[in-house]
């Protein structure tokens, strides 16, 4: 009998996560992968990741909120792309090394392409965590004007109070990179001046549970095009899967 190979998700408060059921289904749908399992590693602080790394037969991990940036300090190597972005969401174990990658950028780019989302003038990135780093990288690489909005006042970031009609006057892609609105806190939404947003703008919520967040509902009420995070999530998960293939033999 083959030894169990373990994969999993590192994050905080991740019972809602799609990843465990998605990858478990992938493993169970193939006889040659039935010896693989996917576990949620719900840790309260990043230093607890050392305990996760001591798990036996660990072959690959995903990383989610709030550890996509902090995890970098605990890895042996970081892929050039992930290093440039400044965030890791996938870990491969290769030759006894923990190597970090970013597959979110693939998921984000492909989601825009598949939905023909290329007709916006600028991007407003809500949040300054690991997911926002991916969107910021995309904007820089594609010469798209962008602004980062954060509750924490930092250099070059806007506060929510500073968002005005001028910033929202064109066709703006508004990307929610925060966990605001995630189940069970479904009555919350980013603190935007929704009355100033025009119907040419696009609401892209990286939250996927619930399928229709309050943020998305508010966008629909304005008449904006909306998209939730499920498609991006699946695309980045598939890219993680591709990276892990060399581990599953």
Task: Throw out a few tags for this protein.
249 residues; alpha/beta; Rossmann fold; 2 domains; six-stranded mixed beta sheet; six-stranded parallel beta sheet; 7 helices; 12 strands; 22% strand
Element layout with pairings:
Elements lengths: L4 E7 L7 H10 L7 E7 L6 H5 L4 E6 L13 E2 L1 H6 L4 E5 L2 E5 L2 H11 L7 E5 L3 H12 L3 E5 L7 E2 L13 E5 L25 E4 L8 H9 L2 E3 L2 H15 L5
Parallel strand pairs: 1-2, 1-3, 4-6, 7-8, 7-10, 8-9, 10-11, 11-12
Antiparallel strand pairs: 3-5, 5-6
Helix pairs in contact: 4-5, 4-7
Question: Any overview of this molecule?
Answer:
This protein is α/β, with parallel strands linked by helices and 249 residues long. The chain has two domains: 5-102 and 236-247, 3-Layer(aba) Sandwich (Rossmann fold), CATH 3.40.50; 105-232, Rossmann fold, CATH 3.40.50.720. 27% of the residues lie in helices and 22% in strands. The chain has seven helices and twelve strands. Helix 6 (214-222) links the parallel strand 11 (202-205) and strand 12. Helix 4 packs across helix 5 and helix 4 packs across helix 7. It is elongated and about 60 Å long. The mean pLDDT is 93.
This entry's quaternary arrangement is single chain
Task: Please summarize the sheet with the most strands.
Answer: 6 strands, mixed
Under CATH, the homologous superfamily of the largest domain reads: NAD(P)-binding Rossmann-like Domain
N-to-C series of helices and strands: EHEHEEHEEHEHEEEEHEH
End-to-end distance: 14 Å
Shape: elongated
Domains (count) = 2
What's the total count of β strands? 12
Residues in β-strands, percent: 15-25%
**CATH structural fold name of the largest domain:** Rossmann fold
The helix fraction, in percent, is 25-40%
Looking at the overall shape, the CATH architecture of the largest domain is 3-Layer(aba) Sandwich
Radius of gyration: 19 Å
